[in-house]
Amino acid sequence: MRLRDRVAGQGDSPHFVFFSGKGGVGKTTLSSATAVWLAEHGERVLHVSTDLQKSLNDIYQQEIGGEPTPIGGVPKLWAVSVETAESMERHRGKLMQTLSLLDPDSSMLQQMKDDPATDCGCAQAAVFEFMEYLHTAAYDAVVFDTAPAGSTLEKIETQSRSILALTKQIEMKRQLDQLFGDDGLRAQIAALEQIREGDEGAFAMLRSTRTAFTLVVTPEALPFAELQRNAADLEGRYGIPIVGVVINSVLPETERDSNAFWRKHWTMQARYIRQVHAEFGDRSIASVPLLATEAVGLAQLRHVASIVYDDGVAQESEVQVADDPVGVGVSKHRFFQHG
After folding, report:
1. Strand, helix or coil at 61?
2. Is residue 111 part of a domain?
3. Is the backbone of residue 61 left (phi > 0), alpha (psi -120 to 50) or beta?
4. 311 within 8 A of 327, measured Cβ to Cβ
5. pLDDT digits (tens, 9 = 90+) for 158-187
6. Left (φ > 0), alpha (ψ -120 to 50) or beta: where does 45 sit?
7. First to last CA, the chain
8. Given 3-state DSSP classes, what are the helix, strand and coil percentages for the chain, each rounded to the nearest 5?
9. Are 170 and 186 in contact (CB under 8 A)?
10. What domain count does the chain have?
């Protein structure tokens, strides 16, 4: 199945598109291009960013705030930047309130009161505060520019295990509540169940057929290593399927033999491109060439989207890799080149 069919959903509305990968590989560019493409193919789209750098302001060339903002020039597209600091503080307050109900003498609660910098999982769990956008009926598609990867999910899971350990008390508390009608016990039960349901709902959504989880990589050692780690964690440990991989910043064919520098660079890129196809060939794979200009503004986003999703503009071709010093053994690969 082509990547365009994966991100367009399978008839479910709303459906969700996530992009994940190492910092700097082009997640915001790909998510923005995808949001524009979906909107211009008739869907009402919300683009959600948790990027601390407020990159959506730059890429859309307008101010994007903490509420859904219409994107000028694309009538069916809205974008929102989740205020991460505020989300963390809200989550921290919720967790402290729950701990104070369950165990006012908790050492963790005391540490959180004494040291606001205490790592209570707030930064990771705050990512899941965008859950409100996963239950909206106002949009056909929601595109996220930064998806939780393996390390983030591990910290959320660790926190969830701690909360779930506390929820073992729920049945006992219900029985006590029935006997004594204690408002305090009811509050504890409600707080525990809210946190449990929130975490369970987040993981269930990531595993559902409504979600297209796409990994982005540039053909280099560190991004490829991150791709392998994320794939192993997401699919092997958490059961979250990866529908596709986008290889970004592929050297254009016209430059690969232009001088010794680019020949060496292409040899390096070709090695990792072959490895992506060898290891992820059962998913949808698309590639984006290294662009001559920055992907900023609607014109460039449409250009990127046409390369990745539109057969009429992107042209698939075979490329012979003449020099294979690393001995990978696969001499050809497929890539998408702008025609």
Report:
1. coil
2. no
3. left
4. no
5. 555 555 555 555 555 655 556 555 566 666
6. beta
7. 22
8. 50, 15, 35
9. no
10. 1
Angle formed by the axes of helices 298-309 and 27-39, to 10°? 90
Distance between CA atoms of residues 39 and 33, nearest Å: 10
Q: What range defines the domain where residue 309 resides?
A: 3-86+119-338
Closest CA relative to residue 214, chosen from 295, 292, 149, 132: 149
Which contiguous run of DSSP H or E holds residue 329? none
Q: Is residue 191 part of a domain?
A: yes
Tokens of 104: 């006012």
How many Å apart are CA 245 and CA 281, to the nearest integer?
A: 9
Q: Which residue intervals of 115-244 are DSSP H helices?
A: 122-125, 150-167, 170-180, 183-207, 221-231
Distance CA 236, CA 34 (A): 27
Q: Which helix (H) or strand (E) holds 318?
A: strand 314-320
Contacts with 162 (C-beta within 8 Å, 6 or more apart), sequence order: none
Instruction: Please name the amino acid found at residue 262.
Output: W
Report how far residue 14's alpha carbon sits from residue 137's, in angstroms, rounded to the nearest whole number.
7
Task: Please check whether residue 298 lies inside any domain of the structure.
Answer: yes
pLDDT digits (tens, 9 = 90+) for 189-234: 676 677 667 667 777 777 888 888 899 999 999 999 999 998 988 8
Residue 109 lies in a domain: no
Domain containing residue 321: CATH number: 3.40.50.300
Cis peptide upstream of residue 14 (ω within 30 degrees of 0): yes
